[in-house]
Write a structure and sequence with these properties.
CATH class: Mainly Beta
Radius of gyration: 16 Å
Strand content: 25-35%
Distance between the termini: 33 Å
CATH superfamily: q2cbj1_9rhob like domain
Order of helices and strands: EHHEEEEHHEEEEE
Bound molecules: 2-oxoglutaric acid
Helix content: 10-25%
Shape: globular
Length: 182
């Protein structure tokens, strides 16, 4: 898998997206009125090649002093049932974020997965047309398998947090705009 880091710094379309009133409205519903972007990336998974992102909780990779954080998964191309988790698409385990244990690792081994086996068994595939978005809490168990399908898969995860809290690292603003939703 290839990765473009912080695309919002280089591609104006990401700045437009981050200020889109419809996206901002969803984020404000989930996190509150004041928001910060703490990171962005594009994961490029080539057909029949792109490597897996093992089951994990994002919390392991950017701990904060609170968990008012989520990731927006922007699908830059169509993600169909053919790219379900077993075939390189992403899956998320509903409600897994409300469990108290949080593992600070990729759940690669059978042993590390064992406490989450129920959650992983319950995972649902994330599918949608290009432009669709998923929203997942920082503790939600999720991952994606190697892309063995004949289609590329290019999710762009954006990390957003509620603004008034203290973060462990610098953040960029995500601001509501007064422009009309289209
Ligand atoms: O391929 C995916 O959609 C999973 C990406 C992911 O979980 C991550 O980059 O943190």
């Amino acid at each position: 898998m290839r990765r473009v880091k912080t695309p919002h710094r280089f591609f104006p379309v990401f700045q437009q997206l981050l200020r889109h009133p419809r996206l901002v409205a969803v984020l404000q519903d989930l996190l509150g009125p004041s928001l910060r972007l703490t990171g962005s990336k594009i994961n490029l998974k080539s057909p029949r090649y792109g490597s897996p992102v093992e089951w994990h909780q994002d919390w392991a990779f950017y701990p904060h002093t609170n968990d008012d954080l989520l990731a927006v998964g922007v699908m830059l191309d169509d993600c169909t049932q053919r790219q379900r988790p077993a075939h390189g698409g992403a899956g998320q385990s509903p409600r897994s974020h409300i469990r108290s244990p949080c593992r600070r690792v990729f759940l690669r081994s059978h042993r590390s997965r064992r406490p989450f086996s129920d959650e992983i068994a319950r995972a649902v595939p994330l599918t949608g047309r290009a432009g669709s978005m998923s929203f997942h809490h920082v503790r939600l168990v999720h991952g994606s398998a190697q892309n063995v399908s004949s289609l590329p898969r290019t999710p762009a995860p954006l990390r957003v947090r509620r603004r008034r809290r203290v973060a462990a690292h610098a953040a960029s603003p995500i601001l509501p705009t007064s422009t009309r939703a289209s």
